[in-house]
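hey m, so remember when u said the tokens were messed up on ur end? i reran from scratch. heres the input so u can diff it against urs
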Amino acid sequence: MDQVRIAGVGQTPFGKYLGVGVRTMAEQALDAALLDAQMEVGRIGAVYFANALSGLITGQETIRGQVALRHTGLMGKPIINVDNACASGSTALHLAWSAVASGQVDVALAIGSEQLTHADKAVTFAAYASGVDVEEREAQDRHAPSDRSVFMDIYAERTRRYMQRSGATPRDFAMITVKSRQAASLNPLAQFRTPTTIEEVLSARMVSEPLTLPMCSPIADGAAAVILVRGAASAASRRSVYVRSSTLVSANADGVDPVCAVRAANGAYEKAGIGPHDIHVAEVHDASAPAEIMLYEHLGFAGRNEGVRLVRDGVTSVGGSLPVNPGGGLLSRGHPVGATGLAQIVELTTQLRGEAGARQRHGAKVALAECSGGNLGLDSAVAAVTILSV
């Protein structure tokens, strides 16, 4: 397999942009990535376009990437549409990496754009509900809620089990949100940039016990893009960032341990020839605040039931020895589903280049991104882990 380098990254600000559209945001992210790479669009040999839920909201299905990119100079190139729930962007990156590493193309683009805002929130929440086995849900006579994402009920159930076995408390989860907002306050592309307090998080509206509203990732629109090229840089003016490994797995047939995040991480570590102790900075799928703590354990950053220690001790905060979600994570940067996994790569590339400003993890040389998606039984349906290094 050939060496694969990140030549350019780009991202729009994440937020609620009713009426802006998938195409406009995709064009903005692409332009930013091309500018960052100092590259002409014609050099791109293959495109992997991530979009998970917008089709259910806007009505544009099947040729989403071709429609979104039709005015960009990419038409005529192979454009592959990627839908893999919340891991859509990470999956697009995995496919782009595979194409470049195998020598199929010299340059590949992974791009994700998502329009989730709708005048009727019930439409958006119904779209989220498609990320589970609908037949299983109907057999259990469970109806998708119209006032929230069905995933918050799923995360709440997992959280209650985790609290019983680990001793974690709602205050610990509030600390994750506070950490997230503090990081996002330093990221001009984040959706929620106003710091908050533990008391404000705990006293907010309850969504699904014990998750209050700030503990849940928001509805967001946005786009992100990553350009991958084959080979080492010849005369780079900045630090070159390489994809050290990329893994993608689905849930076990019975949906039990080892969960897919664990297996994806173990595969990525093995391929990269490193372990969890070698990671300097990470971005993980904090669709809910407790999910971040559980992922500390799944990724090997902490032992079983010991993830809360990392947040209590400030290890994973900006300025800590292992900052997690320094860009604000899904909780505060925002979660436009198809773009999320690529926004993680944008943040980690910025960190490894040493260009993250006040949220910089000094001396960062190795980074990890984890993104999960959907739900099957007791597990996420899919998980992707990417390791980057300089």
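this time it looks ok to me. The chain has 14 helices and eleven strands. if urs says something different then somethings off w ur setup not the seq
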